[in-house]
Amino acid sequence: MLSLPKAVIGKRRWFLLLLPLIVGYSVLMVSIMDVYDGSGRARSPQKSFLRNDGDNFEVLHPEPPFYQRGEQFDSTVPRDRGVLMCIHNGVLAMGVSLIRELRCLGNRELIQVYHCGPTELTQESKDLLFRIDDRLELVDVCSDLTQRGKITQRMANRFRNWWIKPLAIYHTDVRHVMLMDVDDIFVKDPALRDLEPYKETGTTFFYDHGGVHYLKKLFANFKYEQFNERAGQTVMDIMLWFITKERFRFEYSFGDKETFWLSFEMAHAPYGFSPWGVSVVSSWPNRDMKTHPNTLCGSILQYLPDSSADPQVLYVNGKALLDPYPEGVNSGAKTQRNNMFNSLPTHMTPRLPRTQLNMTDAGAVRKEKMYQECLVGLGATPLPESFAGRLLRRRLHFLGAMTGVLGSLELCGTFELPN
Predict the structure, then answer these.
(1) Domain residues of the chain, as ranges?
(2) Nearest to 208 by CA among 317, 286, 283
(3) pLDDT, position 234
(4) What DSSP designation does 244 have?
(5) What is the distance in angstroms between the CA of the first residue and the CA of the last residue of the chain?
(6) Residue 136 phi, psi dihedral angles, 5° rounding
(7) Where are the bilayer-spanning segments (predicted)?
């Protein structure tokens, strides 16, 4: 998370990204600031809808047509803090279940659902989203930026995929925003703004699987002089450059993932990492605990990014824990076993600092196929007892949205028997 000098503390925009990244060496949460000129006028990439007066914020909600809200929208919800997620018809049930999960965990912040163009969400999908939450707004970022001449329609069409996430970060007016994937499964409210990384730098990056291949080329050839000298503006300008130009010249990223922290790095803006390396959960279809209990290969798990003695799980990026066909029905026969539906994860990699994998331990798994997601030799510890109940609740919300049994979305219990 990124922090700024005190002189600009009241004028920054922060972003908290909760998504797993296959980057050179990191997974990240990130924050970015608004930049203001000497007169106090916003110089952010888009119009600012917040007026800062100490700790008091006047709520000025952007007008339609590219912002949509339901009839029951709570217009008193502040815009200084919010959750950002990207949803289209194909992941609607996953997104609905995440929204309900956040509310069950006690989060009441504004939720911005970003999409690209008028066809990504049907009216039926929009009605469902408005029905389940009164602090939610839809943002058609592609239509807005196209109309304002920031991007062409041809370029807008190139964002109908995971690249919409950095575009949404560029566009949002919310100051403290948490960007998350719809398949994130949270164990607790992810509002982490009081933890050390966010307080110190305004960003939190999470380490992921390694593999550096692009950085030397980028550092040697990057043209710093073409970007604004103001740190906050430069971060956003560089991010837009990455997603509208550089990604078409060089495949630097596994999807959108490196874009966030690289924008900070190239802008020479401070950013911070979780003190803990990437972890994963055990994969039941891969028989992790039976065949190689010191090497787990399932979905990515991240611990709370603090240095307390008590390791606490924050979330699992777990589409394979929710969707019976996580890679699609047509890919079922080709899906790796560790990416198949994981009905019963029981263990997780212990909380550790970023660690070099011990490949000499491969003998323990020599008879089994080693996937790149496997954390070889890093051990296993049981998942928290509460995880199974929270996972069951999330699955119930997901299936309720899939089948149209919307009454299930009202349930927030985790089905635990009283002691």
Answers:
(1) 6-266, 279-403
(2) 317
(3) 82
(4) I
(5) 39
(6) -125, 140
(7) 14-36
Check: CB of residue 145 under 8 Å from CB of residue 51.
no
List b or e across 265-282, with b for residues whose CB sees 16 or more CB atoms inside 10 angstroms: bbbebebbbbbbbbbbbb
298 near 281, Cβ under 8 Å? Answer: yes
Low-confidence ranges of the chain (pLDDT < 50): 1-12, 20-28, 32-57
188: left (phi over 0), alpha (psi -120 to 50) or beta: beta
Tokens 């990504």 found at: 120
Give tens-digit pLDDT for 365-398.
Answer: 555 568 889 999 999 999 999 999 999 999 999 9
Sign of the alpha-carbon dihedral angle for 305, 99, 175, 121: positive
- What separation in angstroms does the CA of 86 have from each of 111, 130, 137, 170, 181? 11, 15, 12, 13, 7
CA atoms lying within 13 Å on the CB side of residue 98: 30
Dist CA 179 CA 141 (whole Å) = 15
Burial 359-388 (b: 16+ CB within 10 A, else e): eeebeebeebeeeebbbbbbebeebeeebb
Rg (CA), the chain: 21
Residue 174, amino acid:
V
Residue 378, classed as helix, strand or coil, is: coil
50, 214 contact by CB (below 8 A): no
* Contact of 21 with 208, CB cutoff 8 Å: yes
Tell me, what's the pLDDT at 270? 83
Q: Which of 42, 207, 213, 71 is nearest to 131 (CA)?
A: 71
Burial class (CB in 10 A: 0-12, 13-18, 19+), 403: exposed
Dist CA 307 CA 200 (whole Å): 14
SS3 350: coil
Q: Which tens digits make up the pLDDT trace of 153-163?
A: 999 999 999 89
Which residues neighbour 11 within 8 Å (Cβ) at sequence distance 6 or greater?
Answer: 33, 34, 35, 36, 40, 52
Give all strands (DSSP E) within 72-161, no chain letters: 81-86, 110-115, 136-140
